Amino acid sequence: MTHTPSVSQKPCSVTILSGFLGAGKTTLLNHLLRHLDGKRIAIIVNDIGELNIDGALLKSTTDVIEEVEEIVELTDGCICCSIQEDLWNTVADLAQQGTYDAILIESTGVAEPVSIVKMFVTPTPTGRRLLDLASIDTLATVVDLTFFLDQWDKSQQRLQGKASLFEAEEPIFTLLVDQVECANVIIINKTDLATQQQRDDIQRILRELNPHAELLFTTQSVIPTEKIIHAETFSLEMTLQGAGWIQKLNEHITQKQHERSHNHGHEHEHAHTHEHSHSHEHTHSHEHSHSHEHTPGDIRERLGLESFVYDRRLPFDREAFEAALKRPFQGVLRAKGVAWFRQNDPFVQFYSQAGDRYTCDAIAVWWATRFERGQVSLDDLPSPVRAQWQEPHGDKRQEIVFIGIDMDRQHIIDTLDACLVEESSSIMDDIESTSIKHIKDLLG
User: Fold this and answer.
1) Residue 432, domain CATH
2) Last residue within a domain, chosen from 241, 258, 286
3) Nearest CA to 371 among 350, 387, 340, 392?
4) Cα(207)–Cα(195) distance, integer angstroms
5) 202 and 316: one domain?
């Protein structure tokens, strides 16, 4: 299928709706369709099953809505992964028709919205970008208020060894957090089923996870249409870098900048620049780091919500690290950051934890590695990398932010410190090292 965008054609506006199963996405979509105010739209509905129930329901209820020109059903796969090419082609086809004011995409309940966003901005092998045909207007996530809090509680209980029923389940809470972190509008639905205390709790939890999104409390997903259609609130930077855990790293970075400025007499701006999709370039001011301070009596005080950054300039032993994480750190809700392993020395590892599940994967090559290999000189380093460069390891480091409830901070620090390898250690050292034994002692 060939797509040839017109130079003069304005990209079509796209709104992406996400949210877990049963949160109220289809209810929201039905509401929006009845309040279009003359806007002509196309709808893409995704369902992972062979039968697209949402699409069938929409078709049965929108026959009399004149502004709805087309409903496209994408079935038997998820648009964020297995049928992403189908979504690309469908959006391109609809956008190039030039007859729609907007395209609404309702993703399946298990979709990761940030993957859909990346599909828009990533060039195809022939160099085409979907973003040139269709621009993302709003990235909205619908949250079932009581279900989210229930999953929060279950995640904490698993960490404390109080529950076993869900141990074999899919990492639901991880998905819920991912869907919330990347949104620029969060629709907190079913508020009529929640207490005021629950409404207060979820507001503060969501603000911790995503400091920048607009929060809308709803019943039956009723919101003003202009909040997510032609709202022009989407920001690629905020989507990829706006999660609460990154904000906490920003605050830590600013603090380290001032410490190093005072201690060394010159500025070492502590930024996170790696050429990868999780780029951590930050230019936030010191005032910005204080804009998210919390007053007494908020959720930190009532639920014990806290955060801290673990940072070191020595590598982890991978096996020691994995052994340490076999027993998840109690109380940790979210943890993300960059990690450095002796066994994978050249590569930046991205660590991510939500609840009791974690991943740690290579995402880029350290600038220090490229320098050591003669691929770049110090003059080639981007200024943020040069500013935080420290001898003898350059930009290689551990820098992970932990956010949680009643965390044992010192235990986490001691456990991770026990995984560190001194400079003199060799990759060929015996894996059953003092670090491993120390980990076992800490875990009892």
Assistant:
1) 3.30.1220.10
2) 241
3) 392
4) 18
5) no
Q: What type of residue is 134?
A: A
Q: What is the pLDDT of residues 89-126, one digit of tens each?
A: 899 999 999 889 999 999 877 778 888 888 898 888 88
Question: Helix, strand, or coil here: 439?
Answer: helix
Residue 232 to residue 136: CA distance in whole angstroms: 8
The alpha carbon dihedral of 80, 86, 89, 91 has a sign of: negative
217 shares a domain with 133: yes
Taking the C-alpha atoms of residue 388 and residue 292, their distance in angstroms, rounded to an integer, is 24
Burial of 151 (0-12, 13-18, 19+ CB in 10 A): buried
| Judgement on whether residues 30 and 131 belong to the same structural domain of the protein | yes
How far is it, in rounded angstroms, from Cα 403 to Cα 209? 9
3-class DSSP assignment, residue 429: coil
Give domain status of residue 2, yes or no: no
The domain containing residue 423 runs over which residues? 244-443
Has residue 5 been placed in a domain? no
Report which of 36, 39, 41 is spatially closest to residue 14, judged by C-alpha positions.
Answer: 41
Show contacts of 124-127: CB within 8 Å, 24+ apart.
124/88
Last residue of a domain, one of 193, 221, 241: 241
Written as one letter, the residue type at 174 is T
pLDDT digits (tens, 9 = 90+) for 377-411: 999 998 778 877 899 999 999 988 887 777 899 99
